[in-house]
Design goal:
2 domains, Polyketide_cyclase/dehydratase, 23% helix, metal ion binding, 4 helices, CENP-V/GFA, alpha+beta, five-stranded antiparallel sheet, zinc, 19 strands, metal-binding
Length: 345
């Protein structure tokens, strides 16, 4: 067996590098060695690709995925059968050196009758091209890791913190006949949300969302312009038919853990600054909304710089409340079942 071994240290999180390696359609944007590769990166799948060493025309090959360990290892093999054939295993292995630095070990091993004939080329030209591919990957990953992202206008510059309590009026973006929602009580659990359901201002990656007790809100103008965005969703978000802004979100199911709460976007209160942002949730869900996985490290870095806690669901406080709500429902159902059994006897 002969092996071309290369390595490089990249100042970017492993997840960012992995996102580049896993986005097959974009390989031509950052490297010349494998300018085309297509297919699905799951174990057992065969890809369609071209490899183009310096000074040589692109050569088609069909690698088969043999190992996928997310954000750690991508491995495929190519096999040419016959007495003059060979088998090659190509490996990208990522080892985190810290939250913002990763070692890439990039190698290709050859075995079979044709190995010795291929080796002089692979040990020279092939090795140099793979080292250049590493440098190209490093440049792309580090650019992405340093990239600036616009999370939400509330974070632009030095954000002010408004009061939680007190009356406020939420207004949609219509120039005429805007929908108005009056809030009479304290706004709680103000957070940034990356889910695909929440309304976001133009150009913002995240929504600014909070809750208020549902009995403390009322629509005071142009109620007829509101309609439910998705009637199947647990939180039924009412949007203005004119501008599309989500004005309020309500839960219809009395057994749901958020029943009795109204969801709102505090920035719609105009001159009243939003309360302190307590946390950011559903960050990974940005990918479902069309954000490239390559950007997620920059998003998390920007949030970390604000001191805002980051979660991929809700905050621990709310997750505890949800879990306890489930226990209460199961306990109540068990008590009902026991009562029914007792009644039968």
């Amino acid at each position: 067996m002969r092996t071309v071994e290369t390595s490089i240290t990249i100042d970017a999180p492993a997840q960012t590098i992995w996102a580049i390696l896993d986005e097959l359609d974009a390989y031509a944007e950052w490297n010349k060695v494998i300018p085309r590769i297509a297919g699905l990166t799951t174990v057992g799948q065969t890809l369609s690709a071209d490899i183009a060493f310096t000074g040589m025309p692109p050569n088609p090959f069909s690698p088969t995925i043999m190992r996928v360990v997310g954000a750690r290892e991508l491995r495929w093999f190519t096999e040419v059968p016959g007495e003059h054939g060979y088998r090659a295993e190509h490996v990208f292995k990522l080892s985190p050196l810290g939250p913002t630095q990763t070692r890439l070990d990039h190698s290709e091993s050859f075995e079979g009758p044709l190995t010795e004939m291929l080796w002089p080329m692979m040990d020279g030209l092939g090795r140099r091209d793979y080292e250049q591919m590493n440098l190209d990957l490093k440049e792309r990953a580090e650019q992405l890791a340093r990239a600036r992202v616009r999370l939400h206008p509330a974070l632009d510059g030095r954000r002010d913190e408004g009061p939680r309590a007190g009356r406020r009026y939420l207004q949609c973006h219509c120039d005429t006949d805007p929908v108005l929602v009056q809030i009479e009580g304290p706004v709680e659990h103000t957070h940034l949300c990356g889910c695909s359901q929440c309304w976001k201002p133009q150009g913002a990656l995240l929504a600014l969302t909070a809750v208020v007790a549902s009995d403390l809100h009322s629509v005071t103008a142009n109620h007829d312009k509101l309609s439910i965005v998705d009637t199947a969703a647990n939180i039924q978000r009412y949007a203005c038919s004119g501008c599309g802004v989500h004005m309020i979100g309500l839960v219809a199911d009395p057994n749901h853990h958020f029943f009795g709460l109204a969801f709102l976007h505090p920035e719609l209160a105009g001159d009243i600054a939003a309360p302190r942002i307590e946390w950011a949730g559903f960050i990974s869900s940005l990918i479902s909304s069309g954000t490239s996985p390559r950007q997620l490290a920059a998003v998390r870095r920007a949030l970390t710089g604000t001191g805002i806690e980051i979660y991929d669901m809700f905050s621990p406080e709310i997750m505890d409340l949800i879990a306890w709500h489930g226990v209460k429902l199961r306990s109540a159902e068990a008590a009902k079942s026991a009562a029914r059994q007792s009644g039968r006897t």
